[in-house]
Design a protein that fits this description.
This protein is mostly helical and 243 residues long. The chain has four helices and no strands. About 6% of the residues have low confidence. This is Translation initiation factor 3.
Length: 243
């Protein structure tokens, strides 16, 4: 019985505890749901605020881009107008420069033609002058050549006459010298005019052969102190020399 009572008490305690626990869980779940609803509402509000801000910022950016595009278009139009004006000015400047160059080219062509005409005239005059000078020089050359020829012929004639006279005189002198030399040589080949050295030189200077020259000079040396032998040897030498 006592045990049964304790079992009943335990069951009551457990039942009360379960009931208390169940009530706490329900209360916590209700509070959590409230917090979740509050968070969802805050998230929705934040999302709506962010969307509104993004829309506002996008509109501002679009307006800014439109303004910048308009400014860029205006700047491009101004630049195009400026380029067109500069191109027109450049075209006008090029046309003016071309006209100036054409005028200068025409003036240069006229100046060149005038210079060419002047050069041609000067060349013609110079050619005529050179031709005249050449004719005068040719005439002077012919005259000088004729004079030189006459002078050379006269000089040649005089030189020939002088050379002939000199040759004749030289021939006479040579003949006299030969005759004198022959006479002197003949005197050397006599006992009275004998000279051993001079007769030996005479033999060496002759056209006799070497053996003949040696034989004559040996005989001459042996007979130089004997007048009778010397006379015979001298006669042999005369005969050998053709005297």
């Amino acid at each position: 019985m006592k045990n049964l009572i304790w079992v009943v008490i335990a069951a009551l305690v457990l039942g009360g505890g379960y009931t208390l626990y169940s009530n706490n869980v329900a209360e916590k779940a209700s509070m959590a749901q409230a917090e979740a609803d509050k968070a969802a509402a805050a998230a929705t509000a934040a999302e709506e605020a962010a969307a509104a801000k993004a829309t506002e910022e996008a509109a501002a950016a679009a307006a800014k881009l439109e303004e910048e595009a308009k400014m860029a278009e205006e700047a491009a139009a101004a630049a195009a107008a400026k380029l067109e004006e500069e191109a027109k000015m450049a075209e006008e400047a090029a046309a003016a420069a071309a006209a100036k160059l054409e005028e200068e080219a025409k003036m240069a062509e006229e100046a060149a033609a005038a210079a060419a005409a002047k050069l041609e005239e000067e060349a013609t005059a110079a050619a005529a002058k050179l031709e005249e000078e050449a004719k005068a020089a040719a005439a002077a050359t012919e005259e000088a050549a004729a004079a030189a020829k006459a002078e050379a012929e006269a000089a040649a004639t005089a030189a020939a006459e002088k050379a002939a006279a000199a040759a004749a005189e030289a021939a006479e002198t040579a003949a006299a010298a030969t005759e004198e030399a022959a006479g002197g040589m003949a005197d050397l080949l006599t006992p009275e005019g004998f000279s051993l050295d001079k007769v030996a030189e005479m033999i060496d200077g002759s056209e006799l052969g070497a053996l003949k020259k040696t034989a004559l000079k040996t005989a001459l040396s042996g007979a130089q102190d004997n007048p009778e032998l010397l006379s015979g040897v001298l006669e042999q030498i005369k005969g050998a020399l053709g005297m």
